[in-house]
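Reopening closed ticket. The problem is back. First fold of the pair:
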Amino acid sequence: MEQEIVINAHHVTMEFRRAQHPAGSLKELLLHRRERPQPFRALEDVSFAVGRGQVVGLVGANGSGKSTLLKIIAGALTPTAGWVEVDREKVQLLTLGTGFDMELTGRENLFLNGALIGRSRAFLEAHYGEIVSFAQLEGFMDQPVKTYSAGMVSRLGFAIATAGDAPEILILDEVLSVGDMFFRKKSEARIRQLLHGGSTVLLVSHSPGVIRENCTQALWLDRGKLRAVGEPKEVCAAYEKSQ
């Protein structure tokens, strides 16, 4: 039986423009005001398909285009060329600190962030205890999020995004790389639950070990180009060899 494709990227290219000489003063701004911003290609002709229920890992060095690709899939960015076929109403994108107001408390941010990813207030109230417990934030929910560590913010975001019924498509951008070893194991166990529940997961991690242990397929991005697609062990080995 042919596997249903839920994410299909066709020749995706993303180009940004940046100033060749960033202005550090008014004089520099006036001197370079006639210069045209230089194009920077974050992604170039990237094509791949993801089947329902797969856990796909993205590996690559900083600046390789991983986060840009995830934002295009989620609909946060529109590619310069190419397109992605995906039902974005079923996509949840989780990046560190996304949708959080650092001045608000953890409790307030739970409802704010939950609303931003489509959770109803009734759902969040019903799962409040589960979310706080999974995030290990008992006793901290009435403190401003600006007092949280990066790991605490990540745990709260992950717990909100994965509470209750599994989302159909979950995108995790470097979330499993934050936090202590115990929470990483909890997060990886939750990812495996999502897999068994039929969720499709896209996972970015700097750790090839995380990709090897948790993913059914891997993509290697290198300077915006797709270098390899295939079995996680083989793709990660090729990536590590290139470093």
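Second fold of the pair, where the issue appears:
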Amino acid sequence: MRPRLYFIGFALCLCNTLFADTATVAVATNFKGAIAKLNAAFQKQYPEHQLRYSYASSGTLFNQIIYGAPFDMFLSADSRYPTTLEQRALGAANSRSTYAIGRLVAVTSGQIIDSQQGLLATLDATVKAQQKVAIANPDLAPYGVAAKETLQYLKRWQSSQASLVKGSNIGQTFQFVATGNAPIGLAALSQVKHLTPAIAYWPIPQPWYQPIRQQMILLQSGENNQAAISFLAFLKSEPAKQIIRQQGYEI
């Protein structure tokens, strides 16, 4: 019986090896913290697969994909870029879906904001003092678009132009505030939710900006990649959704 058991064990290992894959996933910077938690859970469930990640703003990753970057899957911070890839037949049919809904927050390096009046007062004081207001670049980052919409809602977009410092992604935007180079910035809730020590932040009311529907899509090179296919399915599972919610997102 023992040789037979050895053979069965060898066959199972061989089967796992044959179906093992490595996938490269392009991920919007705001989701970097969540990916660390999700990857650990994914590896426990799918130990035969390996995932590599590349982080940047959604616009930067989109341009890289358009020009042939070897990504198997794309986790964008919006729906526009994945939709465009789908329309251009650069994404697998019927693979696009929303994996998270992001939230925008005002973060400060000192002043505590707890109301619209407080936010307006801080913005006006920052501009008057010729200091910086940090946002992500709206041309590259969906959270930058949300920041622009928020400032437009508050009628501060034009008056704050000279004070704006634009990060190439939402991670750089947050660093402007965290390092004291900007007294205030508009960043992602996921960046500040679990910080120790805590940093002062105030959630921007949802009606001030369009919902940040973060979508994922399987790319052409990943259509037959079992690691990418498994990760796409995993992100739709309830355990993954629970992790995503814990990181400051809605679903």
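Update: turned out to be a display glitch only; the data is intact. Residues 24 and 52 are 5 Å apart (CA to CA). The radius of gyration is 21 Å. Please close again.
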